[in-house]
Amino acid sequence: MFTGIVEELGSVRERDGGRFTFAAHTILEDLKIGDSVAVNGCCLTVVEIGESWWRADAVDETLGRTNLADLGPGNPVNLERPVRLADRLGGHLVQGHVDAVGEIATAAPGLRVKAPSEVLRYVVTKGSITVDGCSLTVVDVFDDGFSIAIIPHTAEVTTLGRKGPGDRVNLEVDLVAKYVERLVIKEN
């Protein structure tokens, strides 16, 4: 589990198909092989660690369901290690399992994201959503997407301040909403 509070803005150092090497510093402090790291909100497993870098593999399923397939050397990425039980939960509970890919319609600070209808049914005004691994609060919901007010700090320390119209972003909706829906459907 993650919180959606990005720890570091890293970058893609190398890419060979589904094998990514990421440049990083902060998250390397206690990182071990087999650990999980959220990259733009997508949970990946650490397979190798070096000085100022770490490596992970993304299978075809992951590349097809996220924006990781869009990444190449030099691209910035949001990085977060999993939450520990003793940590503060500054964002919301995030699995790192991307529900869909959206498209930026309007850049930050008044970020507007186009999203598929199968995701929008879980999006509510003042609710939480994860965009490229960032836990954010929804300002408004529209027929084709939603809006978020991005504060200057978030724009500065994440990919969201660097993305513009047409860029693809990973979306993860609130986990609790999906479970509630499933239970209600099973009960009826």
Description of the molecule:
The chain is an alpha+beta fold. The protein folds into two domains: 8-80, Beta Barrel (Elongation Factor Tu (Ef-tu), domain 3); 100-187, Beta Barrel (Elongation Factor Tu (Ef-tu), domain 3). It contains four helices and twelve strands. The strands form two sheets. Strands 1-2-5-4-3-6 form a six-stranded antiparallel β-barrel. A six-stranded antiparallel beta barrel has the order 7-8-11-10-9-12. A hairpin with a 3-residue loop joins strand 10 (134-141) and strand 11 (145-149). The longest helix has 13 residues, at 175-187. The chain is globular, with a radius of gyration of 16 Å. The protein starts with 7 loop residues before the first strand and ends with a helix. The relative contact order is 0.20. The model has no long low-confidence stretch (mean pLDDT 95).
Please sum up the structure shown.
It is built from four helices and twelve strands, in the order E-E-E-E-E-H-E-E-E-H-E-E-E-H-E-H.
